[in-house]
Amino acid sequence: MSIEADAIDGADVNRRDFIHIATGSMLAVGGAMVAWPFIHQMNPSADVRALATIEVDLAALEPGMGMKAMFRGKPLFIRRRTDAEIAEAREVSMTSLPDPQADEERAQKAEYLVLLGVCTHLGCVPLGTGSGEKRGDYNGWFCPCHGSHYDTSGRIRKGPAPYNLEIPFYEYTSDTTIKVGKEV
Questions:
Q1: Which pLDDT belongs to residue 10?
Q2: 115 shares a domain with 26
Q3: Could you tell me which residues come within 8 angstroms of residue 160 by beta carbon, excluding any fewer than 6 positions away?
Q4: Which residue is catalytic, options 20, 40, 121, 146?
Q5: Tens digits of residue pLDDT in 36-45
Q6: Is the distance from CB of 35 to CB of 153 less than 8 angstroms?
Q7: Is 146 a catalytic residue?
Q8: Most buried pick, 63, 141, 171, 182, via CB within 10 A?
Q9: Which residues constitute the domain of residue 35?
């Protein structure tokens, strides 16, 4: 009789283990199904994803010209630099810069410079992209609010701004088209 009792107890234990595992699995799946809508609602909406990147056609820019676009609510400055502007930017001594960065690091193609047009001092919009705007002492950009001067590579050269103008993430999709930003 004790052999039969042990067999019944062993089967009972296996059945109980299965019920515990099945119940735990169902709770985990149910919890995930309940949590998914709450997690999913935190993803960016379609309108936010649409503003995450922009494409800009650079074909109309002549050497020495600049253009402005809006990217994520901030001005985007794009300048097609002349050979003289490129040479001037590359001849600057790194020791003379408050925020040292080589021109080669700031432009994927030396001819085109892409910057966020927000002064790093207090967030003003510097002048120098539009025709007739003051470009400052270094022929780049000038922030009239507090007197920051940027060179033809967007590096701070004079004034209270602590950092260079920011370079956003961008990539060339063709010889004259860039895509600014990353997919969200």
A1: 57
A2: no
A3: 121, 146, 147, 148
A4: 146
A5: 998 888 887 7
A6: no
A7: yes
A8: 141
A9: 1-43
